[in-house]
Amino acid sequence: MIICSICLEPCKNPGILNLTCECKYTAHKICFNEWYKNKKNCIICHKKCGPVIFDNVLHKKELFENIQRFKKPNVFWKQCIEFTRYILWFCWFFLFWVMIYKIVLGVLDNFR
After folding, report:
1. Is the pLDDT of residue 6 over 60?
2. How many CB atoms are closer than 10 A to CB 80?
3. Which residues are within 8 A (CB) of 43 and not within 5 positions of it... i.e. 6 or more apart?
4. Helix, strand, or coil (residue 56)
5. pTM as predicted
């Protein structure tokens, strides 16, 4: 379980911290932003740092997954296009044989 380094409470969605030092810790966005209002530095080594970048760690992962999902062609639409191709092929095939049938009937009527 991840613990917030400031309030020491369980941290389900820690903020992504914009640290310029080698310190590794997690904190709630609210906790770190309160700290950042008063002191714009790392809570451990006191080097300068930036504000929280994202609301939570999952935000970046979800954003990446959404981008990847839209890059991939949708399987449903591929199947729809394939089905439409079969229907069009069947219609052309059917019309072709209807025309052949009419031509044959026309030729046979001329021999009567």
Report:
1. yes
2. 11
3. 5, 6, 25, 27, 35
4. coil
5. 0.43
